[in-house]
Amino acid sequence: MQCLVWRNRLRVVCCGWLTLVATTAAATAATTAAELPCVAPAPDPSNTYDAEHTYAKLHKAYPQIRIASAALPDSVHKLANLTYVQYGSRCLQLDLYLPAAPHSGASPAALRPIVILVHGGGWRAGFRDEFAPMAVRLARQGWAAATVSYRLSGEAGYPAAIHDVRAALRWLRSHASDYQLDAQRFALAGGSAGGQIASLAGVTGHLSGFDPAGADSAVASTVQAIVNIDGLSDFTSDEARRYEDDPAKQPSSAGAWFGGRYAEQTARWRAASPLQYVRAVCSAYRPPNQAPADEGCLAGSSS
Question: Which of 106, 157, 196, 269 is deepest in the core (most CB within 10 A)?
Fold first, then answer.
């Protein structure tokens, strides 16, 4: 197996093909069975991290920009508001985008790889619909795609979002036959905070501590590829702390998620950094007859 990490300052794009493994951990109260009616949380008027508000802020300076369309073509089928995990009456949902017909050259029975998309918003804002345009375009090319909601920091701090994304992976894999998904070709992708969440959930797929609800599940919550679009890879670096540990921010986005500044929650800041796990993952998932991990695993130093 080869795990490659390309560093650009603190932003990282990581992809690798990992072996599926089952995870075990202490069970939690999370359940995919609808034991109670779902009750949606009240809308948060401060959550304005969406395309429309961003466009309003930027279009005067960048008049050429446009909001990407999420309109569904005839070639794409959308399954909306699928509950993938439930905590009491709190239901977390995803939208699934599927090709309406086999892609050119593919047989009708061909299994589809899937990309699970995690939205950004500083861990405390954002909506899964922000990745709908990308999901539509993936489905047009013959992929399946899912956009997921997760608990934001105002509702539940770190590492709840990681638990949620891992639960979404397990739910999708357990329903792979229902939607013609290839259970061995799952990719996680995200932007900004969503990129960090996707990276951390992906590179810790072999660690049960990041998926406690999977204790009794035979379904793996691992992935075979990760795409991190402009997400932090190391919260402990000088550059990250210059922005996220700024004492003038009470608190910063990361501080709110971790429940304290770096000096107060050092272990959390470190444990949430995807780069802490990259070499271990490369070593753990190296297939037989492949070069040692040190030869096939590239991780740049902080700059």
Answer: 196
What distance in Å separates the CA atoms of residue 281 and residue 202, rounded to the nearest whole number?
10
| Alpha-carbon distance values, 11 to 14, 104, 199, 263 (Å) | 10, 35, 11, 23
State CA 241 to chain mean position distance.
Answer: 22
pTM listed for this prediction: 0.82
In the predicted model, is pLDDT for residue 139 greater than 90?
yes
How many Cα atoms are found within 13 Å in the side-chain-facing hemisphere of 150? 33
| CATH number of the CATH domain containing 75 | 3.40.50
Q: What is the pLDDT of residues 176-201, one digit of tens each?
A: 999 999 999 999 999 999 999 999 99
CA distance 134 to 141: 11
102-135 in b/e form (b: 16+ CB < 10 A) is: eeeeeeeeebbbbbbbbbbbbbbbbebbbbbebb
How many structural domains compose the chain?
1
Q: Which strand (E) or helix (H) includes residue 257?
A: helix 253-258
d(CA 202, CA 171): 15
Residue 80 lies in a domain: yes
Contact predicate 135/99, CB 8 Å: no
Question: How far is the C-alpha of 135 from the C-alpha of 77, rounded, in Å?
Answer: 11
> Using one digit for the tens of pLDDT, what is the confidence trace for 26-57?
343 454 444 689 998 899 999 999 999 999 99
